[in-house]
Known about the structure:
By secondary structure, the chain is mainly alpha-helical. The chain has a domain at about 35-125. It is about 65% helix and about 0% strand.
Amino acid sequence: MRKPGISPVLLLLAAIAASLAFSCAGTIVESPDVKLEGPEQIKAALKGDDFRKKNQAREKLATLDPADRLAVLQDLLKEGDAPTRLLAVAELLNLAPEVYTPILTDVAANDPDPEIREFAAAAIEPEPSVTPP
């Protein structure tokens, strides 16, 4: 049963922002704009350390067809470091629940990082129903 308080999705987004800020802060100023063409370049940029490239790749990810977007995110969940996997969890939530629920169920059970397992579990936990008094 969920305790009243901060939404798990809000916690997830805050953790992603913090992870990205701490893991990429040193390279924000140095990176030039990069053209990202295709799923492989987008995936490589999302796995990289450059914050600006990651943001550009995240925007481009949304323009991919759903099958390519899903493939990139699943690869990031397998190959990425913890901040990258956390980003992939957040991006999966932009897909349909019937697509992301089984994937996040697996992440919640099997990711090596306990925080990522917790965020994945919180993301798929149903919102409590509110009944009037």
